[in-house]
Amino acid sequence: MAQDKRTLFIKRRLRVRNKLRKVNSGRPRLSVHRSNKNISVQLIDDVAGTTLASASSMEKELGVFGKNNLEAAAKVGATIAERAKAAGVTEAQFDRGGFLFHGKIKALADAAREGGLKL
C-alpha cells in the first residue's frame, strides 16, 4: 500500500519521539523544525514543560533571515549552543522530528556540537 510523504513523515516523527522517551535520562530535548524558508530549534525541558533556549534563522542578529541553507543551519546551531551554555545546559537529546539526519539538520547538529553542546 503506497503512502504519501506526509504520512511517512508523521510515522518517522512518532518513531523518533518514542525512542527519545524510552531513553530519557532527565536531559532536555533539542527539537528541530525545518520549513522551506527557515530553520528553528528549541531546547525543551519535558519534565517542567518549559523552553530553556531557542534560536531561529528568522532572528535579525543572525543575518540569515529567509534562508534555509547549510550556512543558516550552522549559525543557528552555534547560537543554540551559546544560549544553552548561558542557561546552564551542557548536554541534550537531539530530536530531529521526522526530518532525515543529513544536510541542514546534520549541519545544525555539528555546529551545536562544535559549540560545546553534547548531543
UniProtKB/TrEMBL annotation:
Keywords: Ribonucleoprotein, Ribosomal protein, RNA-binding, rRNA-binding. It holds the Pfam family Ribosomal_L18p. It comes from the Bacteria. CDD domains: Ribosomal_L18_L5e. GO terms for cellular component: cytosolic large ribosomal subunit. The keyword NAD does not apply. The keyword Ribosomal protein applies. One of its GO terms (molecular function) is structural constituent of ribosome. One of its GO terms (biological process) is translation. This is one of the proteins that bind and probably mediate the attachment of the 5S RNA into the large ribosomal subunit, where it forms part of the central protuberance. Part of the 50S ribosomal subunit; part of the 5S rRNA/L5/L18/L25 subcomplex. Contacts the 5S and 23S rRNAs. Belongs to the universal ribosomal protein uL18 family. HAMAP family: Ribosomal_uL18_B. This is Large ribosomal subunit protein uL18. It comes from Histidinibacterium aquaticum. The gene is rplR.
